[in-house]
Amino acid sequence: MSRTLILIIQFLLVTGIFFGIGIYLAKRMEKKKRARRKLHAHSLPMSAFSTLDHPVMQQGNDDISPLDEAEVFMIYGKKAKAIEVLSEALAKKRITREAYDAFRAKHGIE
Questions:
Q1: Whole-number Cα distances in Å, 30 to 5, 22, 35, 68
Q2: Positions of E strands within 1-110
Q3: Do residues 71 and 95 touch, judged by C-beta distance below 8 A?
Q4: What are the pLDDT tens digits along the chain (110 aa)?
Q5: Is the backbone of residue 68 left (phi > 0), alpha (psi -120 to 50) or beta?
Q6: Are 75 and 44 in contact (CB under 8 A)?
Q7: CA-to-CA dists, residue 88 to 6, 22, 55, angstroms
């Protein structure tokens, strides 16, 4: 084989390897982007007073259903706080176990 042919084969081989690495890295980055978007898909920009401005929160404290309050927290991406509110309401018997389980099922909370 001539030296030129060997150089062309080497060039194509190296180019193919780098092209393959590039495709692998691009797919990996895209997978991370999708995971990041999925993680933040339900979150909304919040201010310090976001939950206070919601119509449900403007009612009197005695009038607010724990389910409505938890729904507001879920809207603003505060799943842990929503579960805390519902757990306290369940302990104080303000909601039934069925309502608690239905809320968790509705929002896909395990």
A1: 37, 12, 9, 37
A2: none
A3: no
A4: 799 999 999 999 999 999 999 999 999 999 988 888 777 655 555 555 555 555 555 555 556 789 999 999 999 989 999 999 999 999 999 999 999 999 999 988 87
A5: alpha
A6: yes
A7: 75, 52, 22
Q: What is the end-to-end Cα distance of the chain in Å, rounded?
A: 66
What CA–CA distances, in Å, run from 20 to 9, 34, 80, 85, 108?
16, 21, 43, 51, 39
The three-state DSSP-derived secondary structure of 18-87 is HHHHHHHHHHHHHHHHHHHHHHCCCCCCCCCCCHHHCHHHHCCCCCCCHHHHHHHHHHCCCHHHHHHHHH
Cα separation, 92 vs 86, in Å, equals 10
Residue 15's identity, in one-letter code, is T
